[in-house]
What does this fold into?
Amino acid sequence: MSRRNKLDKALLILGYFAATFILVISVMGIYLAILKLFNSGKTIMLSQEETESKLIPDRSVVHISCGAAKNKERKEEIH
It folds into this structure.
């Protein structure tokens, strides 16, 4: 095999890899575009306030309800 044939074969393989890479990137781009199109009515990322309200419930309500339950138990114990 001459050097010219080896070089041609190497460039051909490199070209296949480049074409495959470009094809994969294109398919991913199209997929993300379609996903964004169908998901346009909804937000993927929640705003900071929504995230905080879901992660941290209103603690004052929890403390009040726990305190009321404890007071009720104490009153029942006393009576």
In short: The two ends are 103 Å apart (CA to CA). The helical segments are 3-38, 48-55, 59-78.
